[in-house]
Amino acid sequence: LKKNLKDTFCCSKIKIQKEDRNKGIGSKVMSRITDYADTQNLKIYLTPSKDFGATSISRLNKFYKNFDFVKNTDKSQTKDTMVRLPK
């Protein structure tokens, strides 16, 4: 995570090795990230990408939606395609 703006974090890369996928590791990592962001009242921005070994953008979108990410319609802060508001 990179602190991007005063009230945001930009999630630029999360990579789970192929042999470690489907074991809940990514979900644990994302839960820790979202929990931290919530305690700090931070938005999280990201753009799902196959650049790091994922096989499907739609699968990544579904994964992130499980953590309350939505389509980023306000591109004034970042061009990232998804955002999660603090809870």
Tell me what you see in this structure.
Helix content is 28%, strand content 18%. By secondary structure, the chain is of the alpha+beta class. It has a 5-stranded mixed β-sheet with strand order 1-2-3-5-4, with helices on one face. β1 (2-5) and β2 (8-10) form a beta hairpin. It is globular, with a radius of gyration of 13 Å. The two termini are 18 Å apart. The relative contact order is 0.22.
Low-confidence parts: none
Alpha carbon gyration radius? 13 Å
Per DSSP E runs of 2 or more residues, the count of β-strands stands at 5
Q: What can be said about the biggest beta sheet?
A: 5 strands, mixed
SSE sequence, one letter per element: EEHEHEE
Helix content: 25-40%
The tally of helices reads 2
Terminal CA distance: 18 Å
**Envelope shape:** globular
Task: Let me know the average pLDDT.
Answer: 87
**Taking strands numbered 1, 2, ... along the chain, how are they ordered across the largest sheet?**
1-2-3-5-4
The secondary structure category is: alpha+beta
Write the layout of secondary structure elements.
Elements: E1 2-5, E2 8-10, H1 25-39, E3 43-46, H2 57-65, E4 70-71, E5 82-84
Parallel strand pairs: 2-3
Antiparallel strand pairs: 1-2, 3-5, 4-5
Task: Provide key terms for this protein.
2 helices; globular; five-stranded mixed beta sheet; alpha+beta
Brief characterization of the structure:
The protein is α+β, with helices and mostly antiparallel strands and 87 residues long.
